[in-house]
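Re: the 279-residue chain
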Amino acid sequence: MTKPLTRIAAALERLAPAPQPAPDFDAADAFVWHTAPDRLEPVAEVSRVDLALLHGINRARDTLLQNTEQFARGFAANNALLWGARGMGKSSLVKAVHAAVQGRGHALKLVELSREDLASVTRLLAHLRAVPAQRFVLFCDDLSFSHDDQHYKSLKAVLDGGIEGRPANVLFYATSNRRHLMPRDMIENERSTAINPSEAVEEKVSLSDRFGLWLGFHPCSQDEYLAMIDGYCAAYGIAVAAEALRAEAIEWQATRGGRSGRVAWQFFTDLAGRRGVAL
């Protein structure tokens, strides 16, 4: 009789594991949220670049930095949606701003939440709400929704929905290639097939309206692309003749079919490797 009961208890434990202990927020400055079981895992070292190395996004940089510092100081601040061109530093800016605000002496934690775990966000907010003395930036990278995706409903709890609303000690930043978090062809399809076209997409499109800040990222110019590479070379002490560096950088971006901050970093990584420099 004992063995069957033991197996049943083990099965129940797998289905409904015991609550994890409260996270130790002094263990790190950044955490990643995982489910099954729910837990906040500390990140010993965040992968990021220095704020000064992000070129061509000055307005977005200054706006997000000011908004984040306001929040870290206990003042009013807006949730932010960073949207636009791929590889232009949206997620890099969030991580760099977090480091910059900490460098100014403000205690601020960064918590990463994957889009696939949005359904569990209410449980995550309960953990964060329980420590009002700490302030958190909740970060969701590459956020978007398909036509049959219901995760967007969970996101409203982070923004301004629900009876409790967003905890006062939590700010939400998201990055997306789409301004309205859904593809344009999906919007047009909903409008063309719905009985009331204006209402068909209102629920999903209005989600982006709940962000107080919209920060747009656009493809960079050639001068901005070259300035990014010059900044990396200066930061890592790599000296290359200006004309040779320009020619190589332009050839590299031509083979990639476009320019972006990501392409600039990839070129610099190749250059540093050829020069025997570890990054």
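The chain has two domains: 30-217, 222-274.
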